[in-house]
Automatic annotation (TrEMBL), chain C:
InterPro entries assigned: Bact_response_regulator (IPR050595), CheY-like_superfamily (IPR011006), Sig_transdc_resp-reg_receiver (IPR001789)
Record protein name field: Fis family transcriptional regulator
Organism: Sinorhizobium alkalisoli
Phosphoprotein keyword on record: yes
Keywords: Phosphoprotein
């Protein structure tokens, strides 16, 4: 382990601490007054400061220090954590997160913002009440807040480096003789210290003579064996000065009487009256157990810390140590003893972890390793399917023991796959926590008062899904606050709580994760949506739409209900983008809205991106897989339902509405001419923007779960194709990118030169 | 070799004579009161001030009782530590060793 | 025999720094993540010296030190307190709880090893 690795650990830990900090502050904001909550918040900042100090991250240290000081006021009940106070703290937590990111990625932070918060935090610590938020923001650019003097409170960050083992040179002073009187109290011993050790350190400073005063020692039967009776009078000739002498007693200062004085020049001091015993210079034997030999030379390095390089254990010693530790750590793998370099550390960790196992039954594993395992299990699933298939093909007797064994194998394989997937499953908590910051920021920008309530944060889903969840969720939250919630005035007028509520929940439902985002705002203004859709030619002026259909119009491309594009959720990005990214994850999104009471967005996502439920179809003798989530229904077209228009466009009528027919084989350039729809099957799919299309395929082979194999990683991106998979018979099947196919059918052609390659 | 006199007892000191050992050592010595005692400090690796106090208090009490209290064998660490803390054990060394 | 050091700190960063520093200096290092775990592993760790943080969940450094001092077998073990607080109040509380000495964070390896050497034989 080197410094970079520790630094990496530090930043990982920062992320956890920041999450801890934020959730703690939010709990306080909700009225939680549990001292442990305050402690946890304090510890989070404290911990970040501690690590940052070790790495010399001064900006982070100084901000964390001010923050910590204010939190300490809360902890010691000197500052009431009112909502106004917590507002400052939550913003400080955001800045702390920014500073951490800047420290890691080398970015820059909004200096004015952090200085402003430092001023506000210091004001809070000084017992000043927080200013109302609006004024505080205005006040921001006014004064260049003084940079916090880090040293002010005795906290001085010292950059940590393993190279800095040289001790600072003690000032060389002319050797002089000191008379020291040292009388320990009993507490010195009860705290694990020992006069012997202090005298040992003292003797290292120079030439020492000593007299042990035993006058107070009682008779054996009257003594308390743990009480201090001895005291010492010491004469020490040293060039290190009085400070070095006092430094020896640093830890014992309160637990002894100590008098240090320069001996008189006449050298007729009291010392001569007592029989002084010279202390031998060579005390090395006392250090027999010390890991490093003391450099006890005639030179003046007696006080110098031991040369740590000398401590490097010889190879033989290391080997025996490892063996020993491996025995201690009962579960340490045998390889540990064989590996050369990092083995001692590993073994020591193993030993430590063994002791700690009861408290922390978790291990940290490189994501790469898990991914590799997931890939291998994917191969196993495919292999098992292939094996089953070939056995079925070659074995006419369906009850053979081989068949039964295969069934068990299939069951086991599935269980292994589920278990392996569970390794990568993580709670959605971190993403949900990020959302609270988004809510705060937009609430500030829009002047709305918002409360984010989260539920089901511990619902687990594959890490790859979590990583892709943040973006659409962020957009939806922005949308909910900006468009969903009313201003406090309007809310009051409507008889509602001026503070709006956004509720974010996650739960598992039938093998998928369902995420709901509900606001208690005005709900969707259907008249406005409808008018806008008519204006944009999305629907006919006389179209007869259900409420649900109207609500879902907001997912159409280029649709925005806000009267003017706001800085927050506008940005030229509409809910259509959200819908598309959810669909790209194999998910669906829905809205239901009640006027005056708010809207609920419901997303349903697969638990993993590693496998997919697909419909296996044939197109021009090629086997393709269509994600099941995209398919609304399948139907057998009748000749009477097919209507042609234009040169090559065809529509299919389904229950009195027309839907464009998309010839998949033609689009992918699998064949030169259009297929006859009546001979094939139409898959009604919902695509980007909510529009429905009928995908024409030749035949349906069946439904099955397939293991997704990235084409990009193994080959190259192929337009119209999302990924590939290997079927039970060993054939490679391409997984259709439904959105891309539909887009191509609208004239945005796929690159023709690529399509043949895709088929091959 | 320590058994010339039937009244003479031997006390072997533990390797580590720290705070915890002080009470134990105190009790062991008290139990030996009245007999001549020979202390075997050959195994001592570490001796703290508290145990040194107990030993010195023992030496005094034995002297008052006019019994013999000697160190038969001493380790290097024992000698050096007592020297360090200014406790002279030379007068207590057993003459015959 | 290597000297055994038990470190008690809830920060993974600090734990790793301690581990590297102590291992480099030839100590055997046993680590716990908070006071409760520190007391749990005390027997198996059988430390020659303990280095502990103050601010920790479940059981803080003060409580941990008191716990060690109440343990008949380990009450004599020297305990060094690792703390960013250099103020007298924290030191005093740690001392009253029975700490032997302290190391002000951010520690540098020399200071850490030096302090350990000072309180161990």
């Amino acid at each position: 382990m080197d410094m970079n690795e520790i630094k990496e650990i530090f930043f990982q830990e920062c992320e956890e601490q920041l999450a801890e900090l934020e959730s703690g502050l939010l709990k306080l904001n909700d009225g939680d007054r549990d001292p442990e909550t305050v402690n946890a918040v304090f510890r989070a900042v404290h911990s970040i400061k501690g690590g940052a100090g070790a790495f010399g991250l001064d900006d982070l240290v100084s901000f964390a220090h001010v923050f910590e000081t204010t939190l300490d006021c809360v902890r010691s009940n000197r500052l009431e954590p009112t909502q106004d106070v917590l507002k400052v703290m939550l913003r400080s937590a955001d800045v702390l997160a920014d500073l951490t990111n800047a420290a890691r990625d080398g970015g820059s932070v909004d200096g004015a913002r952090s200085r402003q918060l430092i001023t506000e935090l210091e004001a809070l610590a000084n017992g000043e009440l927080p200013q109302p938020a609006a004024e505080a923001v205005k006040a921001a650019p006014v004064a260049e807040a003084p940079r916090p003097a880090v040293n002010e409170e005795g906290f001085q960050p010292v950059a940590f480096s393993f190279d800095e083992f040289e001790a600072s040179e003690p000032p060389t002073i002319e050797p002089s003789t000191f008379e020291i009187v040292f009388k320990p109290k009993s507490e010195l011993y009860s705290k694990g210290n020992d006069a012997t050790l202090l005298l040992r350190d003292l003797s290292r400073l120079g030439e020492m003579s000593i007299h042990c005063d035993m006058d107070e020692l009682p008779a054996l039967d009257r003594m308390n064996p743990e009480a201090a009776y001895f005291s010492w009078k010491i004469s020490l000739k040293t060039d290190k000065g009085e400070d070095a002498i006092r430094a020896v007693f640093e830890f014992a200062e309160w637990d002894c009487e100590l008098d240090v004085a320069l001996a008189g020049d006449a050298s007729a001091g009291a010392g001569e009256e007592l029989p002084m015993q010279p202390v031998p210079f060579d005390l090395s034997l006392l250090d027999e157990e010390a890991p490093a030999a003391v450099a006890e030379d005639e030179d003046q390095s007696a006080e110098q810390p031991r040369d740590l390089n000398d401590a490097a254990v010889s190879a033989a010693a290391t080997a025996s140590n490892i063996l020993q530790m491996a025995q201690t750590a009962a579960r340490a793998p045998a390889e540990t003893a064989k590996t050369a370099g990092p083995a001692p550390v590993t073994a020591a960790q193993a030993a430590g972890q063994q002791g700690a196992s009861a408290a922390t039954p978790t291990i940290r594993v490189d994501l790469d390793r898990v991914d590799r395992l997931i890939n291998l299990v994917g191969e196993l699933v495919i292999n098992q399917a292939m094996l089953s298939q070939s056995v079925i093909e070659n074995d006419t007797n369906g009850t053979s023991s081989i068949n039964m064994g295969l069934e068990e194998l299939q069951q086991l394989t599935r269980e292994i796959q589920d278990s392996v997937m569970a390794i990568r499953a993580q709670p959605v908590k971190p993403v949900f926590q990020r959302m609270s910051r988004i809510v705060r920021e937009i609430a500030d920008m829009t002047g709305k008062s918002v409360r984010l309530v989260t539920e089901g944060e511990n619902t687990e889903v594959d890490k790859t899904v979590i990583d892709k969840l943040a973006e659409p969720l962020t957009h939806m939250i922005r949308n909910a606050v900006d468009h969903g919630l009313e201003t406090p005035e309007k809310r009051v007028a409507a008889g509602k709580n001026p503070e709006g509520t956004v509720r974010l929940t996650a739960k598992h439902r039938s093998g998928r994760i369902v995420i709901e985002l509900a606001d208690d705002g005005a709900g969707i203004n259907r008249e406005k949506v409808r008018q806008k859709a008519i204006d944009n030619d999305l629907i006919a002026a006389d179209a007869n739409l259900s409420d649900e259909e109207t609500d879902n119009l907001i997912f159409h491309a280029g649709f925005s209900t806000a009267d003017k594009i706001s800085d927050i959720s506008g940005r030229g990005v509409g809910m259509d983008v959200v819908k598309r990214s959810i669909q790209a994850l194999g998910g669906r999104i829905n809205i239901s809205s009640r006027p005056g009471q708010g809207s609920i967005f419901t997303m349903s996502l697969p638990l993993t991106l590693a496998v997919l439920d697909g419909m296996v179809v044939t197109v021009a003798n090629q086997t393709l897989v269509v994600p099941l989530t995209a398919i609304v229904e399948t139907l057998q077209p009748e000749a009477s339902a097919i209507h042609s228009f234009g040169a090559s466009q065809r529509l299919i009528s389904i229950r009195n509405s027309f839907c464009p027919l998309v010839d998949v084989g033609r689009i992918l350039n699998f064949r030169a001419t259009q297929a006859n729809p009546v001979e094939g099957v139409a898959l009604l799919v919902e695509s980007e923007g909510g529009g429905q299309r009928a995908l024409m395929v030749d035949a349906i082979q069946g439904q099955r779960q397939v293991v997704i194999k990235s084409l990009e990683a193994n080959y190259t991106h192929v337009p119209g194709i999302a990924a590939a998979t290997i079927l039970g018979d060993g054939r490679v099947a391409l997984i259709l990118d439904v959105d891309a196919i539909v887009a191509a059918s609208r004239g945005q052609s796929l690159k023709p030169e690529m399509t043949l390659a895709a088929a091959g | 070799m320590a058994r010339k006199n039937t009244a003479r007892k031997t006390l072997k000191l533990a390797p580590v004579l720290d705070l915890n050992e002080a009470t134990a050592l105190h009790e062991k010595l008290l139990a030996l009161k009245g007999s001549s005692v020979e202390i075997d400090a050959s195994a001592v690796e570490r001796i703290g001030a508290l145990c040194t106090q107990v030993l010195m208090a023992g030496a005094r009490s034995w002297k008052e009782d006019q019994s013999s209290f000697t160190f038969s064998q001493v380790s290097d660490a024992f000698i050096k530590t007592t020297q360090l803390v200014g406790v002279d054990i030379a007068p207590l060394m057993a003459k015959e060793t | 025999m290597k000297k055994r050091v038990l470190t008690v700190d809830d920060s993974r960063t600090i734990r790793n720094m301690l581990l590297v520093t102590l291992n480099n200096a030839g100590f055997e290092t046993i680590q716990a993540e908070d006071g409760v775990e520190g007391l749990e592993v005390l027997e198996s760790a059988n430390p020659d010296v303990i280095v502990t943080d103050i601010n920790m969940p479940r059981l803080d450094g003060f409580g941990f030190i008191e716990g060690v001092r109440k343990n008949d077998r380990y009450r004599a073990v020297p305990i060094l307190v690792l703390t960013t607080e250099s103020d007298a109040e924290k030191k005093n509380r740690a001392r009253q709880a029975g700490a032997t000495g302290w190391i002000v964070k951010p520690f540098d390896p020399t200071k850490l090893i030096d302090a350990i050497e000072r309180v161990t034989a």
